[in-house]
């Protein structure tokens, strides 16, 4: 003989309500809670695996870019040896201008004659921002993407002679850097005094920051520590200089 129809109705209603003084009716709620905890655990595990996979993929992309160009990442540099002269704050996202960035960490040494050679990278349409730099005395440029104030996961810095043309980014290049600045993921950028980027008074330079890959976004902070360097805002962009 089957169970009374009335009992089935009580259990069904109690299970749907999730609250009842009937002892048997607590089971569905407990099962639901356990299922929820299990689902949350699986979600966190999945997110963790995806994040780890993304970081691994990024390193693979970086390794391929460097291998294709035959360059090594600049590492073990001395940062911020000077007094901070200016802090540039801005943001890169879908509304930023885009360009097809050149291979990072090239040329191997700064080309102050404005003829630095870096091939076209596979990262096209990356968001960028640019800032005009001037110095009042000959000195080596120090520009660091600071982890504090930066939510970008992976930046690239470029330095160009004037003018910088985002439709022809292979022209007027002086130097670039991918990961010297460190940061939580070790992927922020920096130009250090040991890079020997000797800027000259009377010349204008363009400091360009971009994401490593298209589709990335976040805030950035660049500290300039060279003794006489100044950054000139560009009106079309959203940033501030203090
Ligand atoms: Ca980077």
Descriptors:
alpha+beta; binds calcium ion; 2 domains; Jelly Rolls; disordered N terminus; 2 helices; single chain; five-stranded antiparallel beta sheet; 242 residues
Structure at a glance:
By secondary structure, the chain is of the alpha+beta class.
Walk me through the topology.
Layout: H1 5-17, H2 26-69, E1 86-92, E2 98-99, E3 126-134, E4 139-140, E5 143-145, E6 155-161, E7 173-177, E8 190-191, E9 198-199, E10 205-211, E11 218-224, E12 230-232, E13 239-241
Antiparallel strand pairs: 1-11, 1-13, 2-3, 3-10, 3-12, 4-9, 5-8, 5-11, 6-7, 6-10
Bound molecules: calcium ion (CA).
Descriptive overview:
- The chain is an alpha+beta fold and 242 residues long.
- The protein folds into 2 domains: 1-70; 86-241, Jelly Rolls, CATH 2.60.120.
- The protein contains 2 helices and 13 strands.
- Strands 2, 3, 6, 7, 10 and 12 form a 6-stranded antiparallel sheet that branches.
- The relative contact order is 0.21.
- Residues 154-156, 178-179, 187, 189, 212 line the site of calcium ion.
**Structural class of the secondary structure composition?**
alpha+beta
* Known CATH architecture of the largest domain: Sandwich
Q: What is the CA–CA distance across the termini?
A: 83 Å
Tally of extended strands? 13
Question: Judging from the principal axes of the Cα atoms, what is the shape?
Answer: globular
Q: CATH topology of the largest domain, which one? A: Jelly Rolls
